[in-house]
Specification:
Number of domains: 1
Largest sheet: 2 strands, parallel
Order of helices and strands: EHEHEE
Shape: globular
Helix content: 25-40%
CATH superfamily: P-loop containing nucleotide triphosphate hydrolases
CATH class: Alpha Beta
Structural class: alpha+beta
Number of helices: 2
Strand order of the largest sheet: 1-2
Low-confidence stretches: none
Radius of gyration: 12 Å
Length: 68
């Protein structure tokens, strides 16, 4: 599933609920979710793997626990 900044235009109170639903859906379906976000904190909370792109090129890959 590809999600491109899916929560960015929502009311500030809704994204947390939507993130919980996404986690539940992911656990139920066992499908890969590619979640594109500019919110680094959100990426750290949700990701199994992080890839940082700049101008379309991968500049860094890391597990979220190693992100600085």
């Amino acid at each position: 599933m590809l999600m491109d900044e899916s929560f960015s235009a929502l009311d500030p109170l809704i994204p947390t609920d939507m993130q919980v639903l996404l986690i539940e859906l992911h656990a139920e379906l066992f499908k890969t979710v590619v979640f594109i976000t500019r919110d680094f904190d959100e990426a750290l909370k949700r990701a199994d793997h992080l890839v940082i792109l700049k101008e379309g090129f991968v500049v860094q890959r890391m597990p979220p626990g190693r992100a600085a």
